[in-house]
Structures are given as structure tokens and as C-alpha cells.
Design brief:
The structure is a single chain. The protein has a domain of about 55 residues: YefM-like domain (YefM-like fold), CATH 3.40.1620.10. The N and C termini lie far apart (about 55 Å). The longest helix has 26 residues. The protein is of the alpha+beta class. Helix content is about 55%, strand content about 15%. Strands 1-2-3 form a three-stranded mixed sheet.
């Protein structure tokens, strides 16, 4: 769970907040009018978050690539007597 602090108070206590994040391992959420505005996290946490985002992006790209590489089914259409085929919305 992250420690929440209003932005006006965070300005006055920035050095202390940085120490809490770096040395205490805390995560600090700075709020404005009670709504989360930004978060202070350690550099190590940021690297982990970026690594997770990169891994997710790579899996998504891999999934889309494998879908796009599906073999054409025209031979199967003839084999099974399929008379129609799906065409995208821009096909004429």
C-alpha cells in the first residue's frame, strides 16, 4: 500500500519523501483534491515496471504477428465446398 500525501504538503517535505522511497522502500502517491496525481517510486521499482511493460508489449506483438501469419484457407474452402469468405470492411 502506498503512502498518500497532498501536493501542497509534498512540496514542503520533498527531501523526506525521497528518503522514505529510497531508503524505506515506500511508494508515495501525491494527491490533489484527494485524487492521485503522481507517484514517487524507487528507480528499481521503475525499472521493474518498465520491464513488465516491455514484456507485455512483446507478447502482444508476438500474438498479433502469429495471427497475421495464418495460412490462407482458399484450398480448404474448395475442399469443404465453402461458398463465402470473410472480407474486411474496406473490401470491395
Amino acid at each position: 500500500m502506498a503512502y498518500e500525501i497532498p501536493v501542497t504538503q509534498a512540496r514542503a517535505e520533498l527531501a523526506e519523501l525521497i528518503n522514505r522511497v529510497v531508503y524505506g522502500g515506500e511508494r508515495v502517491v501525491v494527491t490533489r483534491h484527494g485524487k492521485p496525481l503522481v507517484a514517487l517510486v524507487s528507480a528499481a521499482d521503475l525499472e521493474r515496471l518498465e520491464g513488465l511493460a516491455d514484456a507485455t508489449e512483446e507478447r502482444t506483438i508476438s500474438s498479433v504477428t502469429s495471427i497475421g501469419a495464418a495460412p490462407q484457407a482458399s484450398g480448404e474452402q474448395q475442399r469443404f465446398g465453402i461458398a463465402a469468405e470473410h472480407r474486411g470492411p474496406n473490401a470491395t
